[in-house]
Amino acid sequence: MKKCSITLILICLMPILAFAQEFEKGDKVISLGIGLGSSIGSFNTSSQIPALSAQYEQGVWETGGPGVISLGGYIGYKAFTYDYSSSSYSYEQKWDYILLGVRSAYHWNGHNVDNLDLYGGLMLGYYLLNYSYSDSNGSSTGGDNYSNTAGLSIYLGSRYYFSQNLAAFAEAGYGVAYLNIGVALKL
């Protein structure tokens, strides 16, 4: 919890500490992130993998105001396992989630902060769920896809560029995690 609080404070201070890396039409960015907090697997689990994400976006349209609209794609992954064991019986359940999404964001260029890209957007995503179960009595199911669902989510984010092409990013919203942090590379 302490690490999460420190991360959030640093994200809030980024505009103050930053030195304008405006997102422009034609810009292409690839980002890799790790997620903190998630509604996926939020109940008691024996083990889980942190949410991982990769995204791509490209500046497509200039707006009438200070900004650019981008389009891109997203893939996220989250997995968790629940194990139960007693003296006479045991079982294991596994969930693997993959989120595939199409995103669009508005990058606001109306600030006077160098090296900072502020944005917010929407994502249309499709959650793929793979579930498996096995127990000590020999019962098992495997590779069952169920509860696959589509959804719309909203997110806010920022990137701080340490060089012309390399940035740290943070996004808050709903996807495979509530908060994603990571690195971004402008191509």
**What's the helix count?**
1
Class computed from helices, strands and strand pairing = mainly beta
Strand arrangement in the largest pleated sheet: 1-2-3-4-5-7-8-9
Strand proportion, as a percent range, falls in over 45%
Radius of gyration: 19 Å
Kindly report the oligomeric state of this protein.
single chain
Number of domains: 1
Folded structure, characterized:
This protein is mainly beta and 187 residues long. It has a single domain, classed as Porin (Beta Barrel). The chain contains one helix and nine strands, in the order H-E-E-E-E-E-E-E-E-E. It has an eight-stranded antiparallel β-barrel. Strand 2 and strand 3 (67-85) form a beta hairpin. Residues 15-20 have low confidence and may be disordered.
Characteristics:
single chain; 9% helix; 187 residues; Porin; mainly beta
Outline of the structure:
The chain is 9% helix and 63% strand. It is mainly beta. The protein has a single domain (2-186), classed as Beta Barrel (Porin).
Tell me the layout of helices and strands.
Layout: H1 2-17, E1 28-36, E2 47-62, E3 67-85, E4 90-108, E5 116-135, E6 140-145, E7 149-161, E8 166-173, E9 179-186
Antiparallel strand pairs: 1-2, 1-9, 2-3, 3-4, 4-5, 5-6, 5-7, 7-8, 8-9
